[in-house]
Amino acid sequence: MSNNISPFAFVSPNAIIGENNTIEEGVIIKDNVVIGDNNHIYPYVTIGLAGEVKGDDNIKGKVVIGNNNLIREFTSIQSPQRFDFTQIGNDCFIMDKTHIAHDCILGDNVTIAPMVTLGGCVNIGCYSVLGINCSIHQRKTIGESVMIGMGAVITKDIPNFEKWVGVPAKCVGWNLIGLQKRYPKKAKEEILEMCIKNH
């Protein structure tokens, strides 16, 4: 297998790229980037530029992207400035105009709708869904299978399996629809018990 890289993309010769990736026109991938297999990176995505930390334009650590991700146009994924990695897991769907700041960590199967902003050092758990145009304050942790509503402003850590909406956002219950999709063989009662146990 090989990669399909547009002649109008810039991929640093020091970047490490796996197999069967599609990298479209206008994409910028810097030296310190490691990308796995079967990813589709759409036009004008930037990966590995320095994080937006005033007075510090040095690129530190690596941006590591797993396998089978869709990263839509005009998304930015910044280099770490505090720790060793900015990291995207596997099977994530990152829609257009998403901003993933320095030192963010995304688990597997995360879905991010358009125009979402993640501050620096944000952690997103597996199977979480972030609604259109929501914003997450820096250094916050979002648990797994969390649903964040469109336009929400997150200023607190969010435990596993919760649903948050509003400005500032508040918990409005369990993410039962998301959990039923994740665990289709479990009965609703089992899912509720799991929510309470893992909260």
Give a structural overview.
The structure is a single chain. The protein is mainly beta and 199 residues long. It has one domain: UDP N-Acetylglucosamine Acyltransferase, domain 1, CATH 2.160.10. 9% of the residues lie in helices and 31% in strands. The protein contains two helices and 25 strands. A ten-stranded mixed β-sheet has the order 1-4-7-10-13-16-19-22-24-25, with no helix packed on it. Strands 2-5-8-11-14-17-20-23 form an eight-stranded parallel β-sheet, with no helix packed on it. Strands 3-6-9-12-15-18-21 form a seven-stranded parallel β-sheet, with no helix packed on it. The radius of gyration is 17 Å and the shape is globular. The model has no long low-confidence stretch (mean pLDDT 95).
Feature tags:
ten-stranded mixed sheet, 31% strand, 199 residues, UDP N-Acetylglucosamine Acyltransferase, domain 1, mainly beta, eight-stranded parallel sheet, globular
Q: Quick check: average pLDDT?
A: 95
Which architecture per CATH? Answer: 3 Solenoid
| Sheet of most strands | 10 strands, mixed
Order of helices and strands: EEEEEEEEEEEEEEEEEEEEEEEEEHH
What is the terminal separation in angstroms? 43 Å
Q: Give start-end ranges of low-pLDDT stretches.
A: none
CATH H-level homologous superfamily name: Hexapeptide repeat proteins
What is the percentage of strand-forming residues?
Answer: 25-35%
CATH class assignment? Mainly Beta
| Structural domains: how many | 1
